[in-house]
Amino acid sequence: MASITIDISDEQLQKLQALARESGILLEDLLRPRIEDWLSHPTSEFAEAANYVLKKNAELYRRLA
């Protein structure tokens, strides 16, 4: 298994550590499911959904502009 290192602020780290502690799990175990979720939902699905909403509401957006 590979490892990565990222830079985050001390405040972000403290918040993540608190969430993990409250859940009674390791920080890595808190983050792993979210990463797996990102990888299992390609951005094309998001783009398709966003385009659908934009087209569906185009007239509303035009009037609000």
TrEMBL record:
What's in the keyword line of the UniProt record?
DNA-binding
Q: What is this protein called?
A: DNA-binding protein
Its Gene Ontology molecular function terms?
DNA binding
- Source species of the chain: Nostoc favosum CHAB5714
